[in-house]
Amino acid sequence: MLTKYMKMANSEVTSCIKMIKNFLNKVDLALTVLSTLLCMLFVLVPPLNEMPIRIVLGLPLVLFLPGYSLVVALFPRRRESLDGIERITLSFGLSIAIAPLLGFVLNYTPFGIRLAPILIVLSTFTITLSLVAWVRRMKLPEEERFRVPFERLLRIKSLFGGQKIDKILSIVLMASIIVSSGTLVYVAVMPKTGERFTEFYILNSNGTASDYPTNLIIGEEGRLLIGIVNQEYENVTYRLELKINGMVIHGEYVFMTHNETWETSFTFKTTRVEENQKLEFLLYKDGEVYRTLHLWVDVL
Fold it and tell me: Both 171 and 233 in a single domain?
């Protein structure tokens, strides 16, 4: 009787593995798109952007998914000149090259190098190429289409006895669930505080890190964008102070919560003709100078 139940259980496990195998063989592109959309959701939408899972979703989008979508779009056939290891290596390498390249292009657009534009551009790139890969793959005969061979991960069962491996897989599955649940509870109850720092930056009036107004005519106004990002894991009241040639021309207090971004436009002009006039941007925290930036301005 026990043997009969064990055979039935073994048959059910085998059927389940086949179903999972057949499902996974068709969803690499769907998983790519889904992971990309989830990353956008957990990075851009508050309060979800406070959850640590945004890092788990963000790393693949930067390090793997753009390159993978490009590789599968270029090589949709199963029997190409690339094997699995080469595809994975290319995916990492191309992703590491694509992300900085897209950021460089964004620097010369009105959007500038910011989190939201970079994320949207990377996501659009990945999703678009995934759709291109799907279209190219569907045009091929089924036996020629590239697919991720997830079943190779399941072939380990053939190396062992049926009942023993089923028991081992069951134990591993239960242990994984327990460890995952414990980790999730720990992260939720005791979130780890990362490095404390404040981002302080200046951009031109178009929001890019170039073409600053450093060559002016007497009486001409220069326009800048000043930004602060609080990553101190606490509420902070900053003091922003601007000087030109050592003279204070502007000062204000800025109260910010953790992970808040503050930006403001600023217009300045000088009243004397002189080269190499120093325009300073000072950010105070707890009464002390915390961050400093400066530009050298020539006035003719």
Answer: no
Give yes or no: residues 124 and 72 share one domain. yes
Residue whose token pair is 């992260």: 187
User: Within 13 Å, how many C-alpha atoms sit on residue 258's CB side?
Assistant: 11
Give the Cα separation of 239 and 197 in Å (integer). Answer: 16
Number of Cβ within 10 Å of residue 98's Cβ equals 21
SS3 99: helix
The Cα 288–Cα 66 span in angstroms is: 43
Q: Model confidence over 113-138: pLDDT tens digits?
A: 788 888 899 999 999 999 999 999 88
Which of 149, 167, 189 is where one domain is finished? Answer: 189
Give dist(CA 39, CA 59) in Å, integer: 9
Q: pTM for the complete prediction?
A: 0.48
DSSP 30-49: HHHHHHHHHHHHHHHSTTGG
Domain C-terminal end among 189, 207, 232 = 189
Tokens 């551009």 locate to 121
| pLDDT tens, residue by residue, 135-157 | 998 888 877 888 776 555 555 44
